[in-house]
Specification:
The chain is an alpha+beta fold. It has one domain: Lipoprotein localisation LolA/LolB/LppX (outer membrane lipoprotein receptor (LolB), chain A), CATH 2.50.20. 15% of the residues lie in helices and 33% in strands. It contains 5 helices and 12 strands. It has helices spanning 7-12, 56-71, 148-159, 173-178, 258-261; strands at 74-85, 93-104, 108-115, 120-124, 128-133, 138-143, 181-190, 198-205, 208-215, 221-228, 236-246, 264-265. Strand 8 and strand 9 (208-215) form a beta hairpin. The longest helix has 16 residues, at 56-71. The relative contact order is 0.25.
Length: 288
């Protein structure tokens, strides 16, 4: 899935130009990937050409991670999302948010974002989605489709609400990018990300160049870094994943908030004056 736009405004704003999205766009500053298993400095990875554009090893890693995520009936994780935005002097600034995510397939999730920026909470219970700003005591509620995938799409259409980690939440992460996959190649292994050994893969889908770090043993994403191919500024977006918990029981009341239910209602609508894109396709960066 893919983000578009003026990162701070389009990615973070939730409602009516005031509600910042529960998570900022995928991304942070560049960081060394660490030495590969051989102990030698990593050599520049050359992108394959022609028939070898989809390298089997890269596809194997992506599919294995997708299968692990799709099989989890419940899931929770922490996502630190960072993104670059142009500054007045020119060089980009980096903005960051933290989100704590819990979901239960096929029709429930919540995203709690304490900062940076205004705190926000998002709840989806299979029937409605609720965006809540606790400090302002404002809430927006809208009807929602009966699946997590559908709710993610609807949230983008209704209010430009985008989660940069949505790729790990959908029912079939690999299937979601497979038709648009133009390039995929295996880079090597790193021991410098996520506190574990990871497989590094780069791929291009939906016009976005992505590099991902995926646990070599547990197949769970630890980092995803994206750059839009046609972005003249070449701004970078990154998500770091931690605190993974799969298959654990989730309390029945986890996907609602009594405080949100009593907050002042505001419209659940798009923050920009113009209409949203016809489809969320092409509007969210793939993180997995």
């Amino acid at each position: 899935m893919r983000i578009r736009g003026h990162v701070l405004r389009r990615v973070l704003l939730f409602l009516a130009g005031a509600l910042l999205a529960t998570s900022a766009s995928a991304q942070q500053s560049p960081q060394a990937t660490g030495a590969p298993e051989t102990g030698k400095p990593p050599e520049p990875a050359a992108a394959p050409r022609g028939e070898a554009a989809l390298e089997p090893k890269a596809i194997e890693v992506l599919k294995a991670s997708s299968a692990r995520l799709a099989a989890a009936q419940t899931m929770s994780f922490t996502a630190i999302a960072s993104y670059e935005s142009p500054s007045r002097p020119g060089p980009p600034l980096i903005y960051t948010t933290r989100s704590d995510v819990t979901l239960r397939r096929p029709d429930k999730f919540r995203v709690i974002t304490p900062g940076d920026g205004p705190a926000s909470e998002f709840y989806y219970n299979g029937k409605t989605m609720t965006a809540f700003m606790p400090a302002e005591n404002l809430v927006a509620v809208a009807e929602a489709p009966p699946t997590i995938d559908g709710a993610l799409e609807a949230a983008y259409h209704y209010a430009a609400t985008y989660f940069p980690f949505a790729d790990v939440m959908v029912a079939d992460p690999y299937g979601d990018i497979a038709k648009s996959l133009e390039l995929a190649f295996y880079i090597g292994r790193s021991r410098a990300v996520g506190g574990t050994t990871t497989d590094m893969v780069a791929y291009v889908a939906h016009g976005v160049f992505i590099q991902v770090w995926i646990g070599a043993e547990d197949k769970l994403p630890r980092r995803a870094r994206a750059m839009f191919r046609n972005d003249p500024l070449q701004l970078r977006h990154q998500v770091d994943f931690s605190n993974w918990q799969l298959g654990r029981a989730v309390p029945a009341g986890a996907f609602a908030s009594a405080r949100a239910a009593s907050a002042k209602r505001i419209p659940f609508e798009h923050p920009d004056p113009g209409p949203p894109p016809a489809s969320a396709e092409g509007a969210r960066p793939r993180t997995q």
